[in-house]
Design goal:
- This protein is α/β, with parallel strands linked by helices and 178 residues long.
- It has one domain: Leucine Aminopeptidase, subunit E, domain 1 (3-Layer(aba) Sandwich).
- Helix content is 38%, strand content 17%.
- Helix 3 runs parallel beside helix 4 and helix 4 crosses helix 5.
- The longest helix has 18 residues.
- It starts with a strand and ends in a 9-residue tail after the last helix.
- The structure holds adenosine-5'-diphosphate.
- The site of adenosine-5'-diphosphate has 21 residues, from helix 1.
Length: 178
């Protein structure tokens, strides 16, 4: 089984054991994928998030998935893009690593990510995809869990950029090109 995949879709419809939410530090919902996840999970998700008292940028916290098919939501606030000189790459890498650590600790086998920080938070996709893929692949190389991770892009254009980055850095031969 391929441990990593890039696909186009709506993460709220994911059948992974856990989906990751590109949250904000309040964890109280927002726009974009965050709002979509809260709408699909139902009001119980907001209640569960309230009890967590927020989350720092680059860290991650777990809740149940409630009405989602996913059993869990891993919430991680991404960095707001401020030109790249404010520690954004390290914070973005930390989001992916922290979310995967939470998954591994809870024995979660399959995790789907959205493209963190690349919507309202304005992180340019080429740079974000490089950071995201490196963080995910570094983690998978040194851990058995999760067994499978997918990047669920909302648009074909975003997926094309992730595939390009994959092909540049990770496709060891022609057969591995996405
Ligand atoms: P951020 O505030 O971290 O930038 P956004 O939700 O604004 O978060 O955007 C993050 C990414 O999630 C964007 O690339 C956006 O296209 C994508 N996105 C929005 N809705 C969905 C969804 N339902 N499923 C998957 N990705 C989504």
């Amino acid at each position: 089984m391929n441990r990593f995949e890039i696909l186009v879709g709506d993460i709220t419809q994911s059948d992974a054991e856990a989906i990751v939410n590109a949250a904000n530090t309040s964890l109280l919902g927002g726009s974009g994928v965050d709002g979509a996840i809260h709408r699909a999970a139902g009001p119980e998700l907001l209640e569960a998030c309230r009890a967590l008292h927020g989350c720092e940028t680059g860290k991650a916290k777990l809740t149940p998935g409630f009405r989602l098919a996913a059993h869990y939501v891993i919430h991680t606030p991404g960095p707001i893009w401020q030109g790249g000189g404010m520690g954004e790459p390290a914070l973005l890498a930390s989001c992916y690593k922290s979310a995967l650590e939470v998954a591994a600790v809870h024995g979660i086998r399959t995790v789907d990510f959205p493209s963190i920080s690349t919507g309202v938070y304005g992180y340019p996709l080429p740079q974000a995809s490089t950071v995201a893929l490196k963080a995910i692949m570094d983690f998978l190389r040194s851990h058995d869990l999760p067994q499978r991770v997918r990047m669920v892009c909302h648009t074909e254009q975003a997926a094309a950029i992730y595939r390009q980055t994959w092909n540049l850095w990770y496709a060891e031969d022609k057969d591995m090109r996405l």
